[in-house]
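Sequence only, no structure available. Ideas?
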Amino acid sequence: MSSTGATPAIRLTGLQKHFGDVRAVDGVDLEIADGEFFSMLGPSGSGKTTVLRLVAGFEQPTGGTVELAGRDVTGTAPFERDVNTVFQDYALFPHMSVLENVAYGLRVRGVGKAERRSRAREALATVRLDHVADRRPTQLSGGQRQRVALARAVVVRPKVLLLDEPLGALDLKLREQMQVELKQLQRELGITFVFVTHDQEEALTLSDRVAVFNDGRIVQLGSPQEVYERPVDEYVASFVGTSNLFDAEAARAVLGRDGRYALRPEKIHLAAEPDAGAATPEHDRVRGVVAETIYLGIGRRVVVDTEHGARLVVLEPSTAPTTRRGRVGALAAAVTCSLALAACGGGGSDDAATEAPTKLGKNEGQVSILAWPGYVEDGSNDPDADWVTDFEKETGCKVTSKVYGTSDEAFNLAKSGDYDVVAASGDLTLRMVAAKAAAEVNTDLVPNYAKVFDFLKDQEWNTVDGKNYGVPHGYGANLLMYNSDVVKDEPTSWDVVFDKGAQYKGKVTAYDSPIYIADAAMYLMAKQPELKIENPYALDEKQLAAAVDLLKEQRANVGEYWSDYLKEASAFKTGDSVVGTTWQVIANTIDQENVKTTVPEEGVTGWNDTWMIAAKAKHPNCAYAWLNHIEDPKTNAQATEYFGESPNSEEACEFASEGFCETYHAGDKAYSDKIWYWRTPIEQCLDGRTDVKCTDYSDWTKAWTEIKG
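Reply:
I predicted one. Tokens follow.
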């Protein structure tokens, strides 16, 4: 099992950049790990370079945030960010020597002459150019100038190196040589490389992970092998490498399968005789006529017209017997199936793939889970937190897991088809259902589901048209926390952080996320009924503007916006914060008599998470086994108490620590009814209105940037 809660080198949240009516970057959510070689791949105009410039600080976003090593740098200048950039045109000073060019960044930073010359020579040695230190850039080859630019970038020891198509101006041989050197340099330095390119081969060769961009958005995120072998749609299949694309009609005619498929040329093998062997479960066999053969040096590209009228491109090694034009042959195709395009595993429609089974088969021996940090623990992070080992022993299903940081990231990962089970909050569940990425769940096949509190079942975030798309995990509320030494009387309203917040100026704290706008909207529902807000996640332009105005007024009193719960706990302990929104687990962490929580009369926002099964799950039997295991009262008590949220059943409370269920109001329906569980704002109003368009999450993200200034 693999999971990590390490702070990423780069975190982009709801990132947007508009140039007039053009959305160059349109809601990018991304985390790049420390020490990762990460590539952003896409054609011109796809948004990749703009994202790089937003990270560098050369552009300011229209909406969203940029974090470097956990620090929000959205509004900071480029020189205040611990990054450096290598450009395609090198940007070397022609009047300076190579050594002076490399040392220039250190000179600007005030480093002494002896030290900067020493460090510059070390950097040149790293790129194997210390022997040209006294030359001018004009005396170097293109590859050497590129390496000088790299040395100049790394000499200041940035945490992140941004590379904007740095190999684009080199010839093929130099590019291939520099690819090897870049990868080696990144490994030696151990810093994060973010590489922008339109060259698919570069991205696949160099990267630990690749993000494929189109129209300002990330359309697929994964390892080079995942992106190439399992493209999520026709765009990725066509842009990354060459693919033979089959629509439903062609797939039935040529492959004898339902669905839409992407077939890579190297997966097709030519046989000279039409009866040379029979089709196998791994290979489909069709007849065709060679229309064209093109010699490529390392191989041959063969164009074949099949007997069904489809034209295929085949890539065969140059050592294979030459297949001449006009010759009839048999094609054995090992089909590479893109899960977003095709119904794998025996065919069937998308609707069929999402239907619930009526019975289960034998466990497949493994299950892959995508979840929030702390939801799938095997003792490796905390020896006392392990509800995976027993599951593996009892079911024979080996668990692998990946954690995610945002629901948008989870949505992109879930579409890859690499995960069987997804733990989803309310701002993800319905997107999964709408995209047909989630399977209907037959709760009769999850025996422990019967023990779940009734008020958690059949809710709008886990049930659509009477069909269940998951089982409840746990739930929690965003509470009002206050220091009773300063806030003498227990607050009964959120006005203590809004209209009356000035009396605690500089010591009010608020959750740092666009979703916090819902907290302001919930308050306005009660205080300004003339706005006619019925659902804090369904705001038209006028209602959103009112919430934004309220939050802008609040900003003058906010001492800190928090997303790291340990930071808020520390601020309350020191007295830097005395009132604001919180989670119960934070109050428990503080454990001081003068720090208390309450539910104001206007209610609270919160979360209610669901375990879902992917529509294209490769291990559905083990997936159902996991759902039943995590619903088991003992397991659910462990998992929810570890995270800090209410368990989902009365029986779970029997296994929880003394007082835990009382603290988290487990089973208290009246308490739960006061919670407006997180939902993703969408244009189609969630409150049922059809006469107006509501603002969506991108509007909220832009507004949040304005609120924070």
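The longest strand covers residues 284-295.
Hope that gets you unstuck.
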